[in-house]
Specification:
Layout lengths: L5 E2 L5 E4 L1 H18 L10 E4 L5 E4 L2 H5 L7 H16 L4 H20 L4 H22 L1 E2 L5 H11 L11 H13 L1 E4 L2 E3 L2 H4 E7 L7 E2 L3 E3 L12 E3 L3 E4 L19 H23 L5 E4 L5 H9 L3 E3 L4 H11 L3 E2 L16 E7 L2 E7 L7 E7 L2 H23 L2 E4 L3 H14 L7 H10 L2 H10 L3 H13 L6 E3 L6 E3 H4 L2 E3 H19 L3 E4 L20 H6 L6
Parallel strand pairs: 8-18, 12-13, 12-15, 13-14
Antiparallel strand pairs: 1-2, 2-23, 3-4, 5-19, 6-7, 9-18, 10-17, 11-16, 16-17, 19-22, 20-21
Helix pairs in contact: 1-3, 1-4, 3-4, 3-18, 4-14, 4-18, 5-13, 5-14, 5-18, 6-7, 6-12, 7-12, 9-10, 13-14, 13-16
Protein name: T-complex protein 1 subunit gamma
GO cellular component, one term: chaperonin-containing T-complex
Organism: Macleaya cordata
Length: 556
């Protein structure tokens, strides 16, 4: 709906009133409709052309929305929701957009009846509090040490993704990786840093079944001198450095004045002695492998290879941190500060292997690694990119459960239970807020309804049957099986959701809907660019009397 535009100045445009609210609601519904079909295990895929001309095939809500180029500010803020959800809990990126779109859709009727947006928002916030209370009531604790139930949960969370056809593979990888890097903080809390300590290495070729989680790390580097240095070391002693093993250059331009010819030889000798002293300090600790983030000169390479030490240079800072976590080494800034405790002895094997055309260094079989690499193999880059996206979601789900081990039913059962409870409660709410509260309760049914639509079953019959089963509050675990569209008990079919993901979805969706409803003005100060050559012709200057008087008359 195009709203009337009031021109304030030459470039400042303003839209106001309920027209803006209608426009925002329409924009949000349009965004929700784009990804509505990607919800559930029988969802459709989207093919996207990215800015660089590449193709992305995915059904991940966040991956789709971040490729969209949308000008409307309300639609932009909806896309931001999906990104927030992805960063916070890693899953539920499609649900949050669908739910927020539905919340705004049901609010449109109240805007038409001239309800004040603050009243609608108050009712929505009350509904959110009650919905979280219902989730707390139906949530079930889970034993994080029981691998079978953990595997089932991760599997059901990524059952909606493209890689669900590969069975337990992705769930296994995600669970292995997150349990490896998990750190106990005491009092039952666990910290799992997926971004920092889990690296996903994608190598095209081989089969997807060849993918595995390494008990250690790998990186795309070879030893500095392949012929002279060992490429396979069992139980290596590893030293990690953050300094160059080469002669220091001057900070700025340095001039050296040489009087005699021999001085040149003395100067070169000094450089050699400096590098030799650095290497001697390192070799004191009898390392087998030296890794530095900076450069390593040919001379240092010579001294190290003579002592039978393998060396790797110019490694990324993030990779170095992961190696330190995996083998128990400490990254040292100056070789003269090295101690025995800084040497990493936790690795069981260092090996350089050739995969495809490139060499990869593996530091594996670590005793108690707190960092790991997930090695993904597959037929094409597009497939690997999609598998990586799904793996990130699976790892986030596993991390959420390790942090907060509580489950809620999936397949739309949680939303239906919340909806039924809020409908019953709405009758006890007094005043004008009763109607928006009831509308919010109905909006929660958007998730099971969309699941039913994507399964291809009769939506009205399925929804009526589900509402009937939930109305008397008997079994909060009845929902839709996303594959067949049948109405089943979620406990029996083991379709679960993480409590964290579900609670975050509700909070983000309702808070965003409230924020967009309270916008009653859009003021834009952006000048429209004129096409080249469309500029106005310069006006002929008419001289006025005042101008003529002020003119400087130059004498001849």
């Amino acid at each position: 709906m195009q709203s009337p535009v009031l021109v304030l100045k030459d470039s400042l445009k303003r839209e106001s009133g309920s027209k803006v609210q209608h426009a925002n609601i329409q924009a949000s519904k349009a965004v929700a409709d784009i990804i509505r079909t990607t919800l559930g295990p029988r969802s459709m895929l989207k093919m996207l052309l990215d800015a660089s001309g590449g193709i992305v095939v995915t059904n991940d809500g966040n991956a789709i929305l971040r490729e969209l180029d949308i000008a409307h500010p309300a639609a932009k803020s909806m896309i931001e929701l999906s990104r927030t959800q992805d960063e916070e809990v890693g899953d539920g990126t499609t649900s949050v957009i669908v739910l927020a779109g539905e919340m705004l859709h049901v609010a449109e009727a109240f805007i038409d009846k001239h309800y004040h947006p603050t009243v609608i928002c108050r009712a929505y916030n009350q509904a959110l509090e009650d919905a979280i209370a219902v989730l707390d009531k139906i949530a079930v604790p889970i034993d994080v040490d029981d691998r079978a139930s953990m595997l089932g949960l991760v599997k059901s969370c990524i059952g909606t993704k493209f890689t669900s056809q590969f069975g337990d593979l992705i769930a296994d990888l995600a669970l292995d990786a997150t349990t490896t890097v998990g750190v106990d903080l005491g009092q039952g809390f666990r910290e799992v840093d997926v971004k920092k300590y889990i690296k996903v290495e994608k190598i095209p070729g081989g089969q997807l079944e060849d993918s595995k989680v390494l008990k250690g790390v790998m990186f795309n580097k070879d030893v500095v001198a392949p012929g002279k240095m060992r490429r396979k070391i069992v139980n290596p002693r590893i030293i990690l450095l953050d300094c160059p093993l080469e002669y220091k250059k001057g900070e700025n331009q340095t001039n050296a004045e040489l009087v005699k010819e021999e001085d040149w030889g003395v100067m070169l000798k000094m450089e050699e002695e400096y590098i030799e002293s650095i290497c001697a300090q390192i070799l004191r600790f009898k390392p087998d492998l030296v890794i530095t983030e900076k450069g390593l000169s040919d001379l240092a390479c010579h001294f190290l290879s003579k002592a039978g030490v393998s060396a790797i240079r110019r490694l990324r800072k993030t990779d170095n941190n992961r190696i330190a976590k995996a083998c128990g080494a400490v990254i040292v800034n100056r070789p003269d500060e090295l101690q025995e405790s800084d040497v990493g002895t936790g690795a069981g094997l260092f090996e350089v292997k050739k995969i495809g055309d490139e060499f990869f260094a593996f530091i594996v079989d670590c005793k108690d690694p707190k960092a790991c690499t997930v090695l993904l193999r597959g037929a094409s880059k597009d497939l690997l990119n999609e598998v990586e996206r799904n793996l990130q979601d699976a790892m986030s789900v596993a991390r959420n459960i390790l942090k907060n081990p509580k489950l809620v039913p999936g397949g739309g059962a949680s939303e239906l239970t919340v909806s039924a409870t809020l409908k019953q409660k709405s009758s006890s709410i007094e005043g004008i807020e009763k109607w928006p509260y009831e509308a919010a309760a109905i909006a929660f049914e958007a998730i099971p309804r969309t699941l039913a639509q994507n399964c291809g079953v009769n939506v009205i019959r399925t929804m009526t049957a589900l509402q009937g089963k939930h109305a008397n509050g008997e079994n909060p675990w009845i929902g839709i099986d996303g594959n067949t569209g049948a109405i089943v008990d979620m406990k029996e079919t083991k379709i679960w959701d993480s409590y964290n993901v579900k609670a975050q979805t509700f909070k983000t969706a309702i808070e965003a809907a409230c924020m967009l409803l309270r916008i009653d003005d859009i003021v834009s100060g952006i000048k429209k660019k004129q096409p080249p050559g469309a500029g106005q012709a310069p006006k002929s200057k008419i001289e006025e009397e005042g101008d003529a008087d002020n003119e400087n008359i130059i004498p001849e």
